[in-house]
Amino acid sequence: MAVKPPLSELPIKTAENGFYRGFSVNVTVISKIIISLLVVWCIVWPTQAGRILGDWNAAILAQFAAWYIWVVTAFVIVCIGLAIWPTGGRLKLGVEGEKPEFSNFSWFSMMFGAGIGVGMLTWAVAEPVAHFKNNPSVIQGITTALDADNVRTAYVWSYLHWGLGAWACYAIAGLSLAFFSYRRGLPLTIRSSLTPLFGKALSGNLGHVIDIVAVVATILGVAQTLGFGVEQFVAGLTRIGIGGLAHTDGSATTLGIIVALVVIMGASTLSALSGVGKGIKWLSNINMVLSIFLLGFFIIFGATFFGASAFFVGIWDYLVALPWLSFNVYASDGVEGSESFLLAQWQGWWPVFYWAWWIAFAPFVGLFLARISRGRTIREFVLGAMIVPSLMCFVWFAWAGGTAIDLELNGNANGVILDAANGDKIFAMTEFMLAPIAQALAWGMAVVIVVLLMTFLVTSADSAVLIVNTINAAGDEGPKARPHIVFWGAALALVVGGLLISGGTGAIQTAMVIGALPFSIVMALMCIALIKAIWNDGRREAAGVATTIDPETSTMPAE
């Protein structure tokens, strides 16, 4: 049987004139309607929205917990397999001879900043502390809450949630998009990654549905990140002396939410209007420099040796436990308060929630990674998008979180960090460390953290706006009409604000878990399609059939 060249054309109908010129009307309008209805529902009928979303969330966590855990495990296996597969690992995400657009420093900075950087300022301290207080080993009586014997277990779970699994979700999405766009010349949009399975049928309604699912998942995934970020941003503003933005328990007031969103989304919309090569690139470089400064402070002046132990021993414990953790699903006996019930509940609160979050975030981060990774090999992409960011997260957890645990473990902090809200923990810790020396130093560090948090939030938000518009514009990476950038910036702000006001971060979490489910199926199909494409490219190369587009014509070379 003759080996055929790969599909290199996937026409997607876009408007030729009018307000939606250059955009897929089906994808753009339906996505806008879905998001607008969600905003109106949550703001006008918050109680009903909270109850119904909560019921759906409970059902999904009960029925699909195993699916989330196992599908993320599959993403890790596929990524590692592609990197070490001789045929696949050497393939370039582009045509032969093409060089990467960005330096390694800018590449890592943008990848980390847009992908997960904002989460570090909340969870690098909050998560190890949370698992230090409670985790499955504590529930089972194997270790003791808030005791030294629970530190290593706390780090296993922290590394699991922010390690290879998280970045494998992003890598699969980014790799699929870059492969089919830059090697095949297909549109840089989600549907293109499934062409080995569905072919030209993706030009029609099937492709529209896939892209709509990706847009909704992106908005909800980014809303989750911004929701946590807004709460922490308000906590930081309160710490530096701006009052009236937070309740006595540390949660943001309605005024605080509005102020934070106006500042963050206003800046992100302006940055999005300037494009990836300007605003996002410079913001990413700035927040990487500030991150290094803050992290250096924890390494030098925090629990230096405790952090080193948490880093190296923690990685060893994580890798040893990873095979079991990747497949284990706790089954509840349905008896509230029983050990099996508590284990299943904890798994829903933590691993399942995280896997849903990373999957919902994947179309955004994946498409962004694809845009900044053209010219790199699959092996280079996987190692750069999985190993390096994971290690960066581990460094943050080891020294920032390790300093917090050490201060509480030796009794010096006396609950100051433990009792603070999650978003406020890093501020509480730095103030505890610096205030006895000079209150001005504590205030100055709070300002640094607030600025760093804002740059991370702006980077994530403006990247999301550009990515959503790229999907809506049938993969066109060129300039977008300003009204559409402004619309999605406002829509993202309203989704975050509406869900926060109606039900706090729990409401955003619920909506995000629901929105991630259909896209998890799309991502599973991406894995199959990518493996099939690389396998067939090996056969094509052996038969002398072209596997990449001609850079001069953007089409497959004539046979």
CATH architecture title: Up-down Bundle
**Individual helix count:** 17
The fraction of residues assigned to DSSP E strands is under 5%
Mean residue pLDDT:
87
Distance between the ends? 16 Å
Number of domains: 1
Q: Count the beta strands.
A: 0
Return Rg in Å: 23 Å
Overall 3D form: globular
- The CATH first-level class comes to Mainly Alpha
Low-confidence stretches: none
Biggest pleated sheet: none
Query: What is the CATH T-level topology?
Result: Amino acid/polyamine transporter I
Structural class by secondary-structure content: mainly alpha
Description:
The protein has a single domain (27-327, 335-540), classed as Amino acid/polyamine transporter I, CATH 1.20.1740. The protein has helices at 25-44, 46-84, 86-89, 104-133, 136-139, 151-162, 164-183, 195-198, 205-239, 254-274, 276-301, 304-327, 339-372, 378-409, 425-434, 439-472, 482-543. The protein is globular, with a radius of gyration of 23 Å. The model has no long low-confidence stretch (mean pLDDT 87). The chain is mainly α. Helices cover 74% and strands 0% of the residues. The protein starts with 24 loop residues before the first helix and ends in a 16-residue tail after the last helix. Helix 2 (46-84) packs across helix 13 (339-372). The protein has 17 helices and no strands.
List the helices and strands and how they pair.
Elements lengths: L24 H20 L1 H39 L1 H4 L14 H30 L2 H4 L11 H12 L1 H20 L11 H4 L6 H35 L14 H21 L1 H26 L2 H24 L11 H34 L5 H32 L15 H10 L4 H34 L9 H62 L16
Helix pairs in contact: 1-2, 1-9, 1-17, 2-7, 2-13, 2-14, 2-17, 4-6, 4-9, 4-11, 4-13, 4-14, 4-16, 6-12, 6-14, 7-13, 7-14, 7-17, 9-10, 9-13, 9-16, 9-17, 10-11, 10-16, 10-17, 11-16, 12-14, 13-16, 13-17, 15-16, 16-17
GO molecular function: transmembrane transporter activity
GO cellular component, one term: plasma membrane
Pfam families: BCCT
